[in-house]
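Pilot study result, target chain (414 residues):
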Amino acid sequence: MVSRDRRGGVGVGYLSRNVFQDRLAGIRRALEAADLAALVVLTPENFLYVSGYYLDVAPWERPVAAVVPRDDAPFLVMHELSSNHVRYAAEHASMWIPEVHFYTEHYRMQHRTWMTPQWPQMVADLLRRKGLARGRVGVDSTAGPIAAVPDLLPGLQLANAGRILQEMRMVKVEEELALIRQGAELSDWGQARYREHLEPGRPLAEIDTLVLHEMAGEAARRFPDYKVELRVSGLTGPNSACPHGISGDYGQVVREGHGIVNIVIPRLNGYVCENERTFFVGSPSKQQAAAFEAAAEAQAAAAAALVVGATMADVDAAAQRVFEQRGFGEHIIHRTGHGIGLAGHEYPDDIAFNYRPLLDHEVFSCEPGIYLYGIGGFRHDDTVIVKKGSAEITTKFPRDLESQTVSVKGGGTR
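Predicted structure:
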């Protein structure tokens, strides 16, 4: 993972050109097998995957395309807003495809180029010039202005080929795993800060923001040349029974006796890590403790099942078995996990009903949870790499009840 840093020296963090060459070869093998002349990539994570370029625009508003021909060099179609970004990425060796064709948002007499409404005509013209005007071309999305291109090239047929990159992205190479592990270490650091800030009477939004602030400083120290995105969010007390939060109560306050379910998500150079824990402020009730222990045991069982040769359904079943044995089966309302990589939620997503054997170096969230309305949620989430023999749990912050309980000095407010 070598790149040029902003001072012109050698830095780390960007995936190497060897990774790109391997991906390019894999795409071309898939194109040949599917009898496709090229793959046109239109969506953000896939665009990053094939080009190394981190999109700075939303494609629904300013469409882009990464075109990977089966028998020729790949090229990009981008909006002029990205022109300086592209120059920067080229100078820092973080972009793998040097041929970029820009379209404009404003008409200028001295530069007669394609404009935004003419995007389909521009792409059709490029495909024609590249010898791709006829035959079958794969796309990772059929929505948007790409749908108008076959009207301009009657001999062209678009085929939905999103599965090519979907399957390629599931298994990570070591350079990708290194970024996920680095994110895991940062997330553990963030969980330690989160625990330090928990106390009765404090707004949870304040704690979330403080931890985010401290993590931003730590990330800048550890990864000064990376693209870093951070998310820190928690739910306290009965609100935590809603896994994705509630529609209001921004001022929710931590009370003694509350359980807090939080999530810490770093994204380093595009690669995501999830880290969730259930904390208690003051001693939990017997019911809270029982639910916590069930969630911890279920998660340990699921993580142990994330090994090469087991099926994804085995992972979900391992967690469900624990919950049912402990009397919490009726409180399961979501799957045990999902794929993680360039997106927080990646394929495979149907883990509970998928009987495909797990592959070496797939990466999953492992987050079985139970939710008791009026009491709270109970969930731990680790980012786990599938390995032979035993899984690699990248997030290592403690999950036991003692470590997750914050003592209250002098009493608090329930």
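One observation from the pilot: The radius of gyration is 24 Å. A full batch analysis is planned for the follow-on phase.
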